[in-house]
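Quick start: what a row looks like.
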Amino acid sequence: MNKNSDKPSIAICFPVYRDEGTVETVAIKSLKVLADIASKYKVIIVDDGSPDKSGEIADKLAEKYSNIISIRHESNLGYGAALQTGFKYSLDYEWICFTDGDNQYDVNELYHLSKLFNHYNLIVTFRYSKIYGTLRIFISYIYNLIIRLLFKTYLRDHNCGLKLIRSDVIREMELISNSAFIGPEIIINAMVKGHPIGEAGIRTYPRTFGESSVMSIRHITNSIIDMFRVYKKIFKQK
């Protein structure tokens, strides 16, 4: 009997921007966990116009490992745009995992998240162990509260950077967010279409390289703009 017969095919997709110190770590960890839990697999790295050596490192990894694909954006288009590019290369796999390239989310969490494959079409994680400062925790709380009120959702954390979704569910979505709001947009689309959504707690880890841009004015503004664009698209009057 084929040991892989009961394992799904999985693609892990992650954008990189100023992540030259972590891109290889995330990629190699992804290959190791996928070798254990997937029948066939691919790691898709999207360099979103990074000014450092992230894209160069990704290209070298793709040359060395046949299960890694490196894709480059000529300019910085945004986290959501980078994920949408990665999704295009992931649709031949049953499940798509998407995460960040800064290694704050551990892809080894897939060992326990994969136990939920037979129960849900979308698996959303929430951070039960937070390593952020008080201001970021407060802003995250307000942000999630607004999303829950605006879109009538019930989830703890809409923007946690590790999620799993069936590729056929992504295929039916017309995503419009170029910002980090793509995570909530995917959740909202799946909810509206009636797909079963599961939640699981994960740990997050301190960033060991570079600085996060998640709290920048540009990042926050673009996410708010996309939030209202998605609201208008989903709930617009016919």
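That is the whole record. The chain is about 40% helix and 20% strand. The longest strand covers residues 41-48.
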